[in-house]
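Morning!

This is the sequence you dropped in the shared folder:
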Amino acid sequence: MKCAVLICAVLAALPAARPQTSATQSLTSSTALLPDRDAFALLQRITQLMESTAVAMPGMVRAAAPLMENVKQALVNIQAASPKDARQVYILLANARAYLGLSDALPKPYPFTETALKQLAELRDDVTRMDTDFEALLDYKELRVRNPDRDELKRYSEENERLGPATPGNPRVVFLGDSITDGWRLNEYFPGRDFVNRGISGQITGEMLGRMRADVVNLRPAAMLVLAGTNDIARGVPIGTIENNLVMIADIAEFNHVRPLFASVLPVSDYHKNMNPRYEMTRQRPPSTIVTLNRWLHQFCSQRGYTYVDYYSATVDSAGFLQADLGDDGLHPNSKGYRAMASIALEAVNRAGPQQPQKKKRKLF
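The structure's back. Tokens below.
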């Protein structure tokens, strides 16, 4: 009973959901909002620090049990939905702040271990950082309501207007994808080729589907190379939904005489998580799920006569993970990783050739 009363007192003393400190006010949404993978990793770390510091303070495990239960459940819900689920993020943060207040109120043993002190300090810093991110998340959602652009069509709108027609003898290929494509400097790896980068960091297949007209079809390419699916997996999008989106992307391309090429989803790894806990990738992107999606992609390409661009086989190690030297965070390729992908992509594009005229256009719906 005393513990419950103390928790209620701590919660009552907490600041409002959107703390208006000078530090957070100085940050804009664009700089404060963390990528989904980083936000989830930070929330995971907050949960871990709460668990580890509780055992260092007598009575804290019992007193904070309701708070820990709320935090763990919120984390499960966030993993199933998205780190942009504002309600669940608020629940987690409110309970984390209550935990910190409770830790201040309860007596600590003497001497208090240096490790526990450091972990409590880290917990405070992480909660403060997540508070800032939460405020940015609310601003982001408000902006989306005022000016909805779910698929981020504005990202390349000006570049698309400036892009001239393709040069005869140098077929244009659009690379459609997420951050892995977004970070690929195509002009460095494919000099002299008309390869157009239309990757957007963080996107899922449904958002790429929404960009097909503006960022692919209107550019009149001979072909497009799609690398998509890893963010869908991380967000818990059902495999069937991913498959349907990719089928519709292919249908739109074929209908507009653009040859579709589909790349396998790259493997991921946890090899670099000792450098940064955020680099633990296999929990959100289970290797078995990646293999399942790639198996379907390969079969789909075989059935439709598309080129399957097999990055996976060239980048996976014997344990089923992304080779440690091909990426620095377990997800995104580094320069060596992109070099390995470049030769595969170039060979696939050259082998695919131009789109063949269809006797009968495939029905879109």
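Headline: The CA atoms of residues 80 and 236 lie 6 Å apart.

More detail when I'm at my desk.
O.
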